[in-house]
Amino acid sequence: MSSAKIKFCGITSLNDAQLAHDLGAWAIGLILWPGSPRRCTPAAGAEIAARFRRRMEVVGVFVNPTLEQVIGLSDEIGLTAIQLHGDEGPSFCAEAARRTGCKVIKAMRVRSRADIQALVPFRTDYHLLDSHVPGQRGGSGETFEWELARAHRGPVPLILSGGLKPENVAEAIRVVSPFAVDVASGVEASPGRKDPRKLEAFAKEVAGAHAPRPRADHDRPGRPEHVPAGKTIE
Q: Which pLDDT score is estimated for 132?
């Protein structure tokens, strides 16, 4: 059985991007929301994307952006995917995909099963489940009740986030059986700067954690057929 893929988020430098690549990461996340202590500047993001976009997914993380901001930064940086971590609706996600050509990850902060059910209308490339911590949009270091993730149904691959670290990621994979796991604060030396030892330990734990019910490998070139090309914005 294959283990979950890894998305290392909160990358701000070429050095950390290289470490992520060397450890076999499927994706790296560049946080473009100004309110984050892990914010990556567009200039640094463009440098990272130029080197790694053909080797990993380079994901730009947004929180309640305008469509123009998503289009502009996706083009300026050279993103291959966008993660919408705010209150964006299904039509916004579809239009962002159509206008940028990027894959789309829709994130949901989880408090209850209802939050997971709210993802059903989002026919994006991936769904991401994160912890709900008031006043924070990710990077909290807090987990949520992983058993709730079992309510996720349908063809959209699931990415698990929220408080993951080397000490708990194997158990999270066994409980949730996600397509990928996403980590930021759990492998940091400080916000925006990764700890190489924690990165390596995380990757090792993921490699050894075989989910009992693995999802199909959706990591194929191009956009999945289930993603519609929307024409309106919410």
A: 61
Confidence of residue 55 (pLDDT cuts 50, 70, 90): very high
The number of angstroms, rounded, from the C-alpha of 209 to the middle of its chain's C-alpha atoms is 19
For residue 222, being part of any structural domain is answered with no
Helix (H, G, I), strand (E, B) or coil at 77: helix
Q: What is the CATH number of the domain that holds 126?
A: 3.20.20.70
| Residues recognised as catalytic | 9, 130
Q: For residue 59, list its beta bridge partners.
A: 29, 81
230 is a domain residue: no
Question: Which residues does residue 190 pair with via DSSP β-bridges, in sequence order?
Answer: 193
Residue 187 belongs to domain spanning:
5-208
User: pLDDT digits over 139-158, tens only?
Assistant: 455 788 898 998 898 899 99
Question: What percent of the chain is predicted at pLDDT more than 90?
Answer: 78
Find out whether 130 and 85 touch, Cβ atoms under 8 Å: yes
Looking at the structure of the chain, the number of domains it has is 1
The answer to whether the beta carbons of residues 90 and 108 sit under 8 Å apart is no
